Amino acid sequence: MSSHCCSHETPQPDRVQNLGRMRRVLWIALLVNAAMFFVEIASSLGAGSLSLFADAIDFGGDALNYGVSLAVLASALAWRARAALLKALCMLGFGVYILASALWTLYSGGVPHAATMGVVALLGLLANLAVAWMLYAFREGDANMRSVWLCSRNDAIGNLAVLLAALGVFGTGSAWPDLLVASLMAALALHGGWSVLRQARAELRAPVRAH
């Protein structure tokens, strides 16, 4: 009988062996991102920083993404691809929302507090570098695990960008560096979301194979 008639895929031996490690890493990543979401959302509101707010929303979205990844980790490829599709749409939605917020802030004005931005961004960077280091081994996996790696990588880049924005705000006394970095983070989310979306759609179109 053709393998295309199979109603499920048999997990690859190396994937089964790595499931325990993947699950542990995802749980750590989920907890770290959830904690940083609460820290950054409060700090961004206090500092009036859109780039820090964007980073906070990114942390929250990533915590949700890691939870979804945990839920489908041992599922068939089609279900993992559907989960990645959902996460890609979230990444795209985040990017659009931040770009719209940046345009609105151009009219509402206000200069963020640079010191708060810098301290919190540094804390976020350390957290994300630790998570990215743990997830590095899974960067070339299926769309589900690739989306996890991209989220972690984007967060680390975002934290560096917020640090630069803090320096820019401190040096210029204006909100332009903050808005510019927030827009760049939105563009990064749009690019990453589109990349995961394409891979997930390709995996959904691929025939189910037995291993």
What would your notes on this structure say?
With 211 residues, the chain is mostly helical. It has one domain: Cation efflux protein transmembrane domain (Alpha-lytic protease prodomain-like). It has helices at residues 13-47, 50-72, 77-108, 114-135, 143-172, 176-205. The two termini are 14 Å apart. The model is unreliable at 1-13 (pLDDT under 50).
- What structural category characterises the helix and strand content? mainly alpha
Q: Count helical runs.
A: 6
Order of helices and strands: HHHHHH
Q: Which percent bin holds the helix content? A: over 70%
Outline: globular
> Mind telling me the CATH superfamily name?
Cation efflux protein transmembrane domain
Q: How many structurally independent domains?
A: 1
- Please mark out the parts with pLDDT under 50 across 5 or more consecutive residues, or reply none: 1-13
Would you give the CATH topology? Alpha-lytic protease prodomain-like
- The total count of strands amounts to 0
- Main CATH class: Mainly Alpha
Radius of gyration, rounded? 19 Å
Largest sheet: none
Distance between the termini: 14 Å
Strand content: under 5%
